[in-house]
Amino acid sequence: MVSRVIPVDPFDLVVFGGTGDLARRKILPGLYRRFRDGQMPQQARVIAAARSDMDEAAYRAEIRAAIEEYIAPRHRDADTLDAFLSRVGYCAVDADGQDGWPGLAARMRPDVVRAFYFSVAPALFGSLAERLHDHGIADAQSRIVVEKPFGNDRASARALNETLAAYFDETQIYRIDHYLGKETVQNLMAVRFANILFEPLWNAQFVDHVQITVAETVGVGGRGSYYDGAGAMRDMVQNHLMQLLCLIAMEPPHRFEPDAVRDEKLKVIRALDPVAPGDIVRGQYAAAGGMTGYLEDVSNPASRTESYVALRVHVSNWRWKGTPFYLRTGKRLRARSSEIAVTFREPPHSIFGEDASWRENVLIIRLQPNEGIKLRVMIKEPGPGGMRLVNVPLDMSFAQALGPEGADIPDAYERLIMDVIRGNQTLFMRGDEVEAAWAWTDPVIAGWESRGERPCRYDAGTSGPEDALMLMHRDGRRWREIAP
Ligand code: BG6
């Protein structure tokens, strides 16, 4: 496969929170990969900013170690790594104080794209925006990238939108949801809108139901205090799962352009019915198989926060009335497995009579791991013995279909950061979209809080709480197995 990397314009990218986990794990390694592939121009520079006094050499050594940790040896080499690190700088800046800002201002170059990545605690977003503005560091062409969580509910998201709007135009604000940068998530749009095959069937008349699963094996890790105040609904459903739901359910935008796409996603969010209490199952993992339990992980024995949630959701519009969307996500599940499965209805009549082996057509969009797309279809079982049917996958694993380069799938952050430099907001959330997503999740959370509900227990390393099975069984349906 010929590499079709298109270089971007020269830029100065300032990463606030440059010593943090996201910068070390994702942002800097992602930038290195773009550099290695020739997408970052020679004049591009990355300036990490954080509170600690650290000299540039020490910071570069830290990033070298991070890249060596997170990028496999076959995807890096000493020369490009040295060349990349020579473009990485460090500047000590106090995000909510006055120290360091003039120094940062002095480092910014004229005539290059300026982008500022807010990879810091949300409480600092407002003060960063204000200081960038007050010190004349950001100009009218500059962009800011804002990490999640974007608010904790609708009111706080709105307040944050207003704060940012005091200093930046909406076209300068890039609210990141890294799921939108995942290759297969973008592929979902290609599959739907670049083929004639699926779209005529993509509605309640032909789709029986949709399952969206984002299963993780990890627990809350070192983020216990954030996570315990958030839970799976705020941490995953309000953003990542909602975005996936929107891409599946939206009408075709007239062009693949930021507002055209985001307008259509917003309409889906607005068409979501409130979720009935009986359509939600919340779970919390318990110690099992040598793994610690949630309560211990967050050091809060009384916590009622969910580490798992499953929901039945209805999109009330002409296209989807009558097709439920089942969403589930959780930590410490039996496998890391994220996928969207669109299950089609039975053919109106079987010319083969009753056949016990009949199964529905299912389109499976596999987000991770083993990215790819599969369509399960019925065929005749080969060989003699009459007409026996069998359900088989038409399988397009990206690794197989696209060769070794297909397997080298860029990380979501790489794509999204380059989009910021290109000035393309298509894969970023608009302010009204985030607020609408909170407006839908807020009452769900308020509901279980007012009922004082405790999440059900599930053993770490399993498929989640038993009660989640019922959510589908009572509709005569089954969850797909969570398998890698
Ligand atoms: C983050 C959540 O947004 O997404 C984490 O805050 C979660 O809790 C992560 O683990 C999952 O992302 P990915 O790309 O590993 O599926």
Describe this structure in words.
- With 484 residues, the protein is α/β, with parallel strands linked by helices.
- 35% of the residues lie in helices and 20% in strands.
- The protein has helices spanning 21-36, 56-70, 78-85, 101-107, 125-134, 154-165, 183-193, 224-249, 258-270, 294-297, 398-407, 412-422, 431-450, 466-473, and strands spanning 11-16, 45-50, 88-92, 113-118, 143-146, 173-175, 207-215, 280-286, 308-313, 325-330, 337-344, 362-368, 372-380, 389-397, 456-459.
- The strands form two sheets. Strands 14-13-12-11-7-10-9-8-15 form a nine-stranded mixed β-sheet, sandwiched between helices. A six-stranded parallel β-sheet has the order 3-2-1-4-5-6.
- Helix 1 crosses helix 12.
- The radius of gyration is 24 Å and the shape is globular.
- The structure holds 6-O-phosphono-beta-D-glucopyranose.
Q: Layout of SSEs?
A:
Elements: E1 11-16, H1 21-36, E2 45-50, H2 56-70, H3 78-85, E3 88-92, H4 101-107, E4 113-118, H5 125-134, E5 143-146, H6 154-165, E6 173-175, H7 183-193, E7 207-215, H8 224-249, H9 258-270, E8 280-286, H10 294-297, E9 308-313, E10 325-330, E11 337-344, E12 362-368, E13 372-380, E14 389-397, H11 398-407, H12 412-422, H13 431-450, E15 456-459, H14 466-473
Parallel strand pairs: 1-2, 1-4, 2-3, 4-5, 5-6, 7-10, 8-15
Antiparallel strand pairs: 7-11, 8-9, 9-10, 11-12, 12-13, 13-14
The protein binds 6-O-phosphono-beta-D-glucopyranose.
6-O-phosphono-beta-D-glucopyranose is lined by residues 148, 178, 216, 235.
Notable traits:
six-stranded parallel sheet; globular; Dihydrodipicolinate Reductase, domain 2; 15 strands; alpha/beta
